[in-house]
Amino acid sequence: MTELASFVDAHVGKRIRLLRGLRKFSQEKLAKALGITFQQVQKYERGANRVGAGRLYELAQVLEVPVGFFFDELDGFASPAAGPGNLQEEQAPFQKDDGGGEKMAEAPQEKNGSGIELLMLPETMELAQAYYSIREEKIRQQLMNFIRDVARRSR
Predict the structure, then answer these.
(1) Which H/E stretch holds residue 68?
(2) Which residues form the HTH cro/C1-type domain (predicted)?
(3) Of 52, 56, 114, 116, which is most buried, counting CB atoms within 10 Å of its CB?
(4) 123-141 tens-digit pLDDT
(5) Residue 116: exposed, middle, or buried by beta-carbon count in 10 A (0-12, 13-18, 19+)?
């Protein structure tokens, strides 16, 4: 069970690091918002220290995501020892709805193995920043449709 817990801690840490980067927060800035040291943030991000439920809630508030975000794309969430008679439930990732609450997302059609590592690449960050710097929503949507079309054709 310790191995699974360590895996989950590392996954949550990667999600914290991803969000911190997307929000352009330094470790110091995030630590100050949480009332902890930047070294503690480092330990959370590496998965060296477990993030408690209360702290996870605070992180979600500061980083403006639902708590469930930290567990999205968590492979192997169910214990390997789980078998018949144990309760297991498949969960869809959480997304914010327009009202600021949480809602269940639709299950992804296909998992490309892209995962969180892709989101943390500098190229991905640059692409997202460039995309959102386009002021006209219609143009952004056309660009998105073009990218989806190219992706479909390249499969």
Answers:
(1) none
(2) 16-70
(3) 56
(4) 887 888 888 889 998 998 9
(5) middle
- Calpha distance 40→134 (Å, rounded): 37
List pLDDT tens digits, range 91-122: 444 444 444 443 433 333 333 445 666 776 77
Q: State the residue for tokens 């892709």.
A: 118
Beta-strand runs (E) in the chain: 94-96, 102-104
Residue 91 · residue 103 · CB < 8 Å: no
Q: Check residue 3 and give left, alpha or beta (phi > 0: left; psi -120 to 50: alpha).
A: alpha
Tokens, residue 63: 């980083």
Q: Check if the beta carbon of residue 10 is closer than 8 Å to that of residue 76.
A: no
- Radius of gyration (C-alpha) of the chain in whole angstroms: 18
Q: What are the residue ranges spanned by the domains of the chain?
A: 2-107, 121-155
Question: pLDDT-based confidence at 16, cuts 50/70/90?
Answer: very high
**Fold for domain 2-107?**
434 Repressor (Amino-terminal Domain) (1.10.260)
What is the chain's length? 155
Give residue 153's pLDDT: 92
Give the CA angle between residues 140, 22, 25 to the nearest 5°: 140
